[in-house]
Design goal:
40 residues
């Protein structure tokens, strides 16, 4: 369990990161390229 203050800070951080990620997806930066050498 997290203390209430930290829990709320974490919730706000995750909200900000979700918005950032959604903006990245919209602009084409939400993916990652993987080398074929590591694909099984």
């Amino acid at each position: 369990m997290l203390p209430l203050q930290i829990k709320e800070e974490l919730r706000e951080h995750l909200k900000r990161m979700k918005v950032l990620h959604e903006n990245d997806l919209k602009t084409g930066y939400g993916g990652v390229s993987l080398s074929y050498a590591i694909i099984i």
